[in-house]
Amino acid sequence: MRKNKREAIVLAAVSLFNTQGFAGTSIRDIASKAGVNPANIAYYFENKHGLLEYCLTTYFEQYLAQIEAAIPLLDMGAHVCLKKVMENLMYFQCGNTQMSRFIVREMSLDSQMVREIMSTYYQKEKYYFQVILERGMKEGVFRNLSIAYAIIQIKGLVTMPFLNPHYITEVLHVFPHERYFADKYLNQLFDWVDGSLIARDKASIAI
């Protein structure tokens, strides 16, 4: 029961944060939507900022787990590993669209909490991407490129649908929460890897 209440609070909070903003959402709003007593929020999270910290850390623990699950594929080739990372992240974000949308937007702000997340989870994510790209260039699978700018491109491609969901749905008429979208978009991401990262003389290894 306690776990169900905590999950209900998190789901309600994320929904309200997305529609009303963090500052515009009160503890009472969250409690009302979750169908719990406001005291339950204090019990589990202490306050609204504690709830936000829980959302961020829980999300990024799961997010990094998607990357870490693909790292063993480096022995099959950096391109195989990178594509698996992209696949895992896309399906994870599509399966957690509301949370992903909120987290990506929240991470664009400048706050002490965001800086702490940057210094831990994002630095670890950067490390994994750097390992993959360096291995690919060392083995001649990836062409020589700026790792920093390559990471910017990868991050942009993977997060764009969740940073700009209204553009995706209202302008392009596709829906980033659907598995169909993830499948189709992944094909485009894989084409980008093959066309932009793979060394020309290694193009035949692209899968």
- CATH homologous superfamily heading of the largest domain: Tetracycline Repressor, domain 2
What can be said about the biggest beta sheet? Answer: none
Report the count of strand segments.
0
Per the CATH scheme, the topology name of the largest domain is Tetracycline Repressor, domain 2
CATH architecture of the largest domain: Orthogonal Bundle
How confident is the prediction overall: mean pLDDT?
91
pLDDT < 50 runs, ≥5 residues: none
Kindly describe this structure.
The chain has 2 domains: 1-46, Arc Repressor Mutant, subunit A (Orthogonal Bundle); 53-205, Tetracycline Repressor, domain 2, CATH 1.10.357. It has 10 helices and no strands. Helices cover 75% and strands 0% of the residues. Helix 5 packs antiparallel against helix 10. By secondary structure, the chain is mostly helical.
What labels describe this entry?
207 residues, mainly alpha, Arc Repressor Mutant, subunit A, Tetracycline Repressor, domain 2, 10 helices, 0% strand
In short:
By secondary structure, this protein is mainly α. It folds into two domains: 1-46, Homeodomain-like (Arc Repressor Mutant, subunit A), CATH 1.10.10.60; 53-205, Tetracycline Repressor, domain 2 (Orthogonal Bundle), CATH 1.10.357.10.
Compile the SSE list and pairings:
Elements: H1 2-20, H2 27-34, H3 38-45, H4 48-70, H5 78-95, H6 97-106, H7 112-138, H8 147-163, H9 165-171, H10 179-197
